[in-house]
Amino acid sequence: MRCRFAFGCIIGILALPTHALEIGEYQLIDLSHAYSPDSLYWPTSPSKFEKKELSFGQTDGGWFYSAYSICTPEHGGTHLDAPLHFAADGNPTDKIPLESLIGNAVVIDISKKAAADHNYVLSANDVLAFEDQYGRINPGDIVLLRTDWSQFWPDAKSYLGDDTPGDDTNLQFPSYGVDAAHLLVVEREIAILGVDTASADYGKSTDFVVHRIAAAHNVSNLENLTNLDKLPPIGALVFALPMKIEGGSGGPVRVVALIPNK
User: How far apart are CA 95 and CA 93, in angstroms?
Assistant: First the structure.
């Protein structure tokens, strides 16, 4: 019998007035890249991350003060794809239920296969092999696909397979396959598909079927994750809270994993 971190138990504990989440009992892993001018965006994105200084220094009153303005497309850096991104009736970013953004992490490691084949896609058989070892993936789980592609961040040529501005026809990187996405989204009813590459569809995709399968079932995607190599296959709890953009199709997200100390 496998031992999984009980999300329901922690919610029950938090509901008790005499108990609190003891952060010291967990290892915290940041699964997000910081936003900067080096952050990677889809090659056809009309703009990237911009940060402008509004104030920085001593005020006339004698205290220090700093402020900035930022501008970014929704889909770049470590971000969430809301279902609305590929489904007209899908949830926008601000309508995604919180219970769909917090859940048990399932980390499927295809890093060795991806190193040998940069266009490798997770298959349904890969998922079933994972389940044979660790147990069945449950409804509401957050599935994270580990390719170790984050080691190439932020080198666009290595990370995306091609760095031609405005051209997304020659991209190469691994991700989910269609049969695996159907198994996870439709049959296992997971909450989120996450990956440490630029897209839930592999680089050579021209029809974005994985995005469409997920969006049709109100499942979000997490893209451009990092540090998945620091997570166990099961046993971590993930919080993936995006910027709450009204009517948005996605947005920047800070993704954090909690691993219980042994």
Answer: 6
Q: Look at residue 111 and give its three-state secondary structure.
A: helix
Retrieve residue 222's tokens.
Answer: 């997490």
Picking from 72, 103, 96, the residue whose alpha carbon sits closest to that of residue 237 is 103
- Strands 142-146 and 192-195, how do they pair? parallel
pLDDT of 126-146, one tens digit each? 999 999 999 999 999 999 999
In the block, residue with structure tokens 């997920």: 214
Yes or no: say if 108 and 243 are a contact pair by the CB < 8 Å rule. Answer: no
Residue at 60 is within a domain: no
The residue segments making up the domain with residue 158 are 7-46+74-260
The number of domains in the chain is 1
What three-state secondary structure class fits 115? helix
How does pLDDT run across 77-101, given as a tens digit for each residue? 999 999 999 999 999 999 999 999 9
CA 149 to chain centre: 13
